[in-house]
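### Sample
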Amino acid sequence: MASSLFSRQLSLSLQKNLWLGAAGKSSSSNTGCRYVSKAAPKTQVEYDYDGPSMKTSVPGPRSKELTKQLGEIQNVAAVNFFCNYEESRGNYLVDVDGNRMLDIYSQISSIPIGYNHPALLKLMANPNNLSAFVNRPALGILPPENFPDKLTESLLSVAPSGMTRVQTMACGSCSNENAYKAMFIWYRNKERGHNTPSDEDLSTCMINKSPGCPDLSILSFMGGFHGRTIGALATTHSKAIHKLDVPSFDWPIAPFPRLQYPLEEFAKENAQEEARCLEEVEDLIIKWRQKGKPVAGIVIEPIQAEGGDNHATPNFFKSLRNIARKHGCAFHVDEVQTGGGSTGKFWAHEHWGMEDPADIVSFSKKLLTGGFYYKAELQAEKGYRIFNTWMGDPSKNLFLVEVLNVIRRERLLEEVTRSGKTLLNGLYELQTQYPGILSRARGQGTFCAIDVCDDETRDKILLKTRDKGVLLGGCGDRSIRFRPTLLFKEYHAHIFLNIFNDVLAQYK
Ligand SMILES: Cc1ncc(COP(=O)(O)O)c(C=O)c1O
């Protein structure tokens, strides 16, 4: 009785926020744009607003007040502004000062189908789901009855080629951290020729000494980002701020190809650059084996995101996969940022066109839960070897089932390809128009980026664009990254391009 009352109230209040909010706030749009971008036919996203609406500069007074208040409790140096998530809808994030911004950063690329999607609100309001939200289990020991079915309907229904097993985790770093452990355990069992540790293994591991804690390594790439926990951080090489003062491992770091864009125009130069990097990878694997720290696994992002949206060709990844095989290293593809559809395929590595692309694929962000897919041989033989209290959150799998339904029903990957083309073509046009400011436009689907002449100008452009109602993110030294939700349509691209053009015009 109490639960049905609660769910009715929840459902009513969510509907009120959703639909009354729509009626009251949908009419105004950004002003002052010079319309250079063609108007695209507006395909209706019912619950979306129809444009940005700005009342103050961002952060506004209420955000500043709250930042001060929170600053008394914790570090707020990274806080941009405070949000009103009840009023946010579709592609638009509303802040506490009533500013409504077209969100092309989507909570660091982690919102799959926009804010307050009706399909997800409906799921929340369903009384049958309440216990999943209220009772968070220790999944590794006490999973709920529907857990295997929900994993099958959600994560396994989009499993990368060759993968039949998946382990959920809480976040991206923790997914990678545990994936590395799985690779080390697999490698040691391979070295031993069996799964049974010796007495010496068991005693030395307790005091952090070899052979129980073996001198194995993970090869990563300069510019890569795999998270901020100690092991993941050892493979992160994007910005010093992430790593400073934290002890790390002596693990090999290979150069990631520094390609020229558009890729089709520089095929020869890029192939040479990729060959150079691949050669270095093999050299490092051999060198680290000679040092007594063999490479158990190679970890790589399909597009280096945090490190500056650096792309490589399918040929590079195919060759790297072969090098991993040749030297007996596991091949781990980190799809935490690229996974979930924004490149136009559900997994970015699908663009490589390989039957057997990886041994491990990690994910988080748009998949709502963290975790990693893995080949059967990478399963540790005992419980508790890959383990923590929560091991993910089964309520996220319920949401993911709905997200995948929406992606399929609304053919969102096709939409992403279409709107991504419009976005990238617009960026090409703008970089021709502003050659002193913009360069190296690049992208796959809506997973796009462009470079700005220097970091100071980039940061100013980001703030000015935000004050005009579009939220973007930076990455690398001087890139702007575009990470919209999967609901981003061509007309959203045009709204952005017009506002962006307006900001850039001030620099001419
Ligand atoms: C490729 C990649 N791997 C790992 C991570 C770490 O994920 P989290 O921030 O959830 O720990 C990120 C986060 O941005 C990422 O982009």
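The chain is about 40% helix and 10% strand. This sample (4-aminobutyrate aminotransferase, mitochondrial) is used throughout the tutorial notebook.
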